[in-house]
Write a structure and sequence with these properties.
By secondary structure, the chain is mainly β. The chain has one helix at 3-28, and strands spanning 31-35, 40-49, 52-56, 63-66, 70-74, 79-83, 88-92, 95-97, 100-105, 108-114, 118-121, 133-145, 151-163, 167-180, 183-198, 203-214, 219-236, 239-254, 260-273, 281-291, 298-309, 314-325, 335-346.
Length: 347
Amino acid sequence: MSLRKYLQASCLGTTLCLAGLAGADEVVHKDEIVLKSGSTIIGTVTGSRDGVVTIETDFADPLEISLDKIASVKTSAPVVIQLADERVLPEQPLLIEQDQLVIGTATSPQESYALENLLLVNPEPWELGQGYRWKGVVSVAASAQRGNTDTDDLNYSLESIWRSKLDRYTLRYNGENEKTNGETTVEKWYAQGKYDYFFDGPIYGGFQGSAEHDKFTDLDLRYLIGPYIGRQFYEEPILALSAEIGASYVDEDFIEAEDRDYIAANWAVNASSNYLGGDSRLYLDHRGIVSMDDSSDYILNLILGLAFPLVWSLEAAAELQLDYDNGAVEGVDKLDQTYRLRLGYTW
């Protein structure tokens, strides 16, 4: 064999060996899920919560697989496991065999747990008691009409929520301004700040303050302060649901009508869900107050919406807002209905 052919053969052999080693290394570092149907999924397990394991693959978007459909799971790299009793096991490969979570370390024998004891895999820092999770959305809806009537309308809203294991801070602000033929025809806004402290389990207590202005319903300023108690029934993407009830002091300053203040009962219901899929979000926000002095004097506010992602962190939303004030001053409609399309940024 000539020297030239020998060198070519050597280079080819070396290349094939390196490729083989790289391929073998890649296989070694892949995680494996075997389904009860017999199928095997190879990829990277990124987490587990609410009885669902998430795995990233090279051939599709991340897959979410219910634990009751899984025969076994084995990760090559360590993960963080949080058990239902709040114990945290760091640097632990995830191993599930025969409907059992298998835990073991280099210094202790393996122990098996029922899968109900698996709370989270790779929990977020706030779920481990480290800091806060910050979520929010800011959005606008604008329209301009030119013709026999020139109308410009701007609607805006902001919601920001900081959540830890122990407490939650919420800020909300929304408003609307409209001009018709150069004259203001709508001028209103609403602001709310809340603090929630979670007791043992899903029950929490809190304190809120809010302020509201609506020039063309004669409302110069309505403010409300007071405590409440609530329950976080669910707090997951498929369904987040909370309800609150409390007592508050309400002060109403009117532009023309006589001012008044009273003690009121108040309540709120908030819900959202990604049930429709595609990262869409159905949501409902409802709040109400009723005077303790006169049960016919009550206010109901309801927002129903469907939001869906666009690109990056932008989303579009279609909303229906209903505001009903049974104690509205004379000459003002009790029911106000608003339909809008929003463009927002989420984080």
